[in-house]
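Progress narrative, work stream C.
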Amino acid sequence: MAELGFKGPLHKQISETLTFLRTNVLGERIVKFPDRAEAARFYNFPYRALEEVLSNAVYHKSYELGAPIEVQVFPDKITVLSYPAPMPPVDGNMLKNQRLILSREYRNRRIGDFLKELHLTEGRGSGFPIIYREMKNNGSPAPVFETDDKTYTMVTLKVHPEYLKSLDEIDGAGTSVIMFSINSLDGLNDFLKKKLDGAVDGASAHIQNLLGATVHSKVMEFLEATLNWTYRKELFEKIGFSNNTQNRAKYLDPLIENDWIVKEFPDKSTSPNQRYKITESGLRLLNLISTK
């Protein structure tokens, strides 16, 4: 399991942790039904609930202890563990049975006021209702709060029950599924390997932004220019670039490495007869990014 640590001022730690989770973990799924116009939209984990859980962990932990707040991500849940237990009179029984807790004992009042000024929390006693509300509005299971009344507090956010269903299971129910949890190049290639037919509504801009950040901004042009076998000189002329080694390494090689474009003679890279053509994965990618 990979482990990352975020250091610095508290607001920076919260911001960087949430940014990482939003970019690499959180995803949206849209399910369209044949018998109605409105689609069902939900996230694996609602961002607002996660933001509130993390901010509350920062608010209520003891800074006399050296242990950091631990956020663990699993396919079916996210857990946020902090130390120690809540301040009395809050205990494990209260955490499990009350959705609104108004405790008059706060471990870090100044930190709470600071987080409120940054709009990371809404005020004392507001955390539990927000977390429950956001999970319910997303169609997710209720959050789980645990403590041993001495050493730790842990919050568990469970994944939306429909999110982990396979595409085959959902398609079998007569719906079409659109996933927006493509937040990395590896995730995009995994999606392309599923060989799904048809375009994904609304995904074009998102995926083009991802390609621009991780590959380059000319991916669509190169894919369109290689619908038929094409010599490299002709290819770069179509794009309007010089046919040189630097441009080949920057623009063409990454597409070959990702299996979006293939060489006609892969074992003869320097062959004067070398030509290039889009692959099946490249065609699926082109279909995604060219749909408005």
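Work stream C, second folded protein:
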Amino acid sequence: EVKTLGGRRDNSLRLVCVCYSTLVRYLKQTGRICLGPLRLSTLTLSDGLPTLATLQLHCCSALENTLSGQEDCLIPLYSEALSTCKQQDVQPWLHTLRYTIYQRQLLLRLKGSSAPLDGHLMELCLTAVKFARKQGNIALATRLLGQCSEGEEEEEGGEEGLSRAFRRLSLAGVVGEKWGPELQIEKAKVLCTAGQSMAAMEMLSSCALSFCRSGKCERAACRSVLTLCKWLLADWKDMTPQLKQVVKRSGVMTPGVAALPPISQNITALLELPLEDQGMPRITAETTVSVGVGEPDLVLGQLYQLSTSQAPEVAKSWAALASWAYRWGRKVVDNARYIF
């Protein structure tokens, strides 16, 4: 019986080896067929993933490289896809994501480590979240966010449940250092798309404050502040009273500051952060409110100035600040003309 069992085990191992070698041989043949079309593909010049047909060829080639032990086993991805890609269809990203997850499992089994794929997988996942959100598919975006995080995802119903679930999602290690800020920003954006604008602004303002204080995520801080300003403008009528409270309490640490809503507390803390010396005066109440600029608009201008201070190379923040300054400068001049 022992010999029989041993023989069966040997036969099973032999069968696995034969299947493995056959799979690799077929993948190599497919790779040779793919070589011509892939060389003609202008993937690096496009603003997204290729068509599904070309993408299938990339997946086969990457899978063959993974099984053969080659280092070049990543499905090619446009280097700035997450920030600039205009492709709205989420299906190619989901297709690539499934293949990359399978590749990661193979690497874990073959080598015990999936480090070469972890960052690539995270970028794919976050980009898929982005396009699912833009399509209004909150359920898919939420599920993908759960895959991005290292924490355990729990199903919770209701609006507050979604917000609590998102607060538990986080990243750690090398992947967390690079993609953690993107995950935090995307969580807030999904919340906003789901109709929870106040919870989204609280989460995003808290993230912006954390990014600014860390001194390591300048671009993420700039983007989060700009997005916060965009959301404040969208809910301007409802947010005006809270922004007025920010102006009254800003710079004065009194017990009343703690009584402010979380969003107002976060904005107050943001406005108290020091600015980098850029050779331009800081926007203050003396130079704005005293000549006719509304208090809520003063807060908006200060936030725009903070965004330029965090990442001076981001043109979008300077454009927003210039637009704000022009709009209010014109109003002040017009008011002065009517007075005199």
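Residues 234-340 form one domain. No further action is required on this item.
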